[in-house]
Amino acid sequence: FLSINPEEALRKTIGRFQKRFSYVEDALHRQGRQMCDATPEEMDALWEQVKTEEKESKKEGAI
Question: What is the pTM of this model?
Answer without folding.
Answer: 0.82
